[in-house]
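Re-run with default settings, no changes from the original entry. Doing this only to confirm the output is reproducible before filing.
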Amino acid sequence: MDGAHRMTIKPARTVPVVLERFGSDFSEFTDAFAEGQYVLWLGSGISRDRVPNVYELLERILEHLRTNIDDPDSDCAYRAALSAGRDAEALQFAQEGVDAFPRKAPLRNNLAVLTERAGQAEAAEQLLAAALEDDPTLPQLSKNLGDLYYKSGRAEDAQAAYQRAVKLAPGLGDDVYFKLGNLALKFTQRSEAVAYWREAIALNPANDTARRNLAAVDGGAGDAS
């Protein structure tokens, strides 16, 4: 290719490193990709006309990568601090990560979670809302934003956020379906509540609270937790 130049780049060993490369070493390609010039699968170009559902497939692939991302290296300072319960130190590392890669939604999500743990719920909500506006495809952003709404009693906002999250990732976890069931019951949507609790139990058969709520409502006796 005319005008091309060679780059000597060390191989990327983990998915996070690969994603970071798209924001640095391969930023020109990333911009072209964002403009719709390329669709890729494992480094090979795909004609959009030859694969009608290519965007649906890529969305599923990206969600898989986001939820099953490689563990960082064992010497990762952020993970070490998080595992040891040193939240203040982990928060500092999370902030440094966002400062270095301000457009990375997963990093912003991590920062928001730790910010909320530090007792700054309003700041965490602002972080999540801003990240969600930039990247509405990351279900954890909607899930965590829903958790903040749920804790503060903003039921309608929480329900909307959780519904958005499970639409993006139906297997996100039993907790979100459990809370959706509680919210549905709050709005007297009994059949929806039953369906959500059943989904929570399907994802986690050990969710006894969901079982009790389901028995109370579906059996017509007692009040749900």
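Confidence is low (pLDDT under 50) at residues 1-9, 41-45. Residues 15-67 form one domain.
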